[in-house]
Amino acid sequence: MSEETPAVGAPLAGALTNNGTQNLAARPVVIGVDLGGTQIRAAVLRGAELISRVAQLTGEDTAPEHLIPRIFTAIQQALDEARTTLEQVAGIGIATPGPLDHRTGIVYAPPNMPGWDRVPLRDIFEQYFSPASEGGDAAQLRIFVENDAHAAGLGEYLFGAGRACSHMVYLTISTGIGGGVIVDGKIVEGTNGTAGELGHMTIDWHGGRCRCGNYGCLEYLASGTAIARYANEAIAAGQGVELLEFARALQQHVQEGNGLELPTHEATGAHRQRRLVYHWHERSLQTRRKQLALASSTSSTFSIHK
């Protein structure tokens, strides 16, 4: 049996309304934190208005005792860039990979965040940002911890592609794959907060083992981490010569100070680079297309209804 938690779990009153009638100018200032397997982001916002934003790479050391202080630093940098102070902030919302319990703010062993096991993230933030005053009273700053895909889905529901929709499914594809399901304006959390984990549905029952412990998950097959794994496997098997050449060319391009954008001065060269990637990936996907087609023929699909 599933439990539906109101989307008004955000610190803004009336957050269930997504018909564009809210007075965003009257919204309080809030801080949003996105803790991901690839990047840490902190932002200061007023409703849908982005006032400032700070981003940094998560890095390989994801141990909470090392990563959480960096989040605090990113928050302070975002406040400084917004030229505001913590006293003017109504609350902090933290989007983090699941599984987690949004009611207690405890994060339980996310597959892409090694070292996180039963981390009381909300309590840690409350202790850091709401220290006890000299009189013994704590000026509590409201702290919310939510599954990152649920939070992103709520953002789209309130301010983006889901506006004026009653039901919506959000799918995020990055380091991992996450999902957020909104029905009648409520995030479907489930009895323990793990409903809507679309990335951990079994798509290929003969597939490899995902970091979550399940086999053949969508995340294992189609996430950014999976694509990198396919590339490494192809190169190690001697089947990725052109892909390896492309990676080396891109690395040199970045080292020359050109950023992560591909060279565009030669159209035919750019077209060839894209074709190399597609050609390499096409063969590895042929078998999976048949498996996905079979799975989809026996599974229900979601749609967006206005």
Features:
306 residues; alpha+beta; Nucleotidyltransferase, domain 5; 5-stranded mixed sheet; disordered N terminus
What's the shape? globular
- Summarize the biggest pleated sheet: 5 strands, mixed
Low-confidence stretches: 1-15, 132-138, 262-306
CATH superfamily heading of the domain at 4-163 = ATPase, nucleotide binding domain
What's the overall average pLDDT, rounded? Answer: 76
Whole-Å distance between the termini?
A: 26 Å
- As for the CATH topology of the domain at 4-163, it is Nucleotidyltransferase, domain 5
- Strand tally is 12
- Name of the level-1 CATH class of the domain at 4-163: Alpha Beta
Rg (CA only): 22 Å
Share in helix = 25-40%
What class do helices, strands and sheet pairing give? alpha+beta
| Total of DSSP H or I helical runs spanning 4+ residues | 7
**Which percent range describes the beta-strand content?**
15-25%
Query: What is the N-to-C order of secondary-structure elements (H for helix, E for strand)?
Result: EEEEHEEEEHEHEEEHHHH
Strand arrangement in the largest pleated sheet = 4-3-2-5-9
Q: In CATH terms, what is the architecture of the domain at 4-163?
A: 2-Layer Sandwich
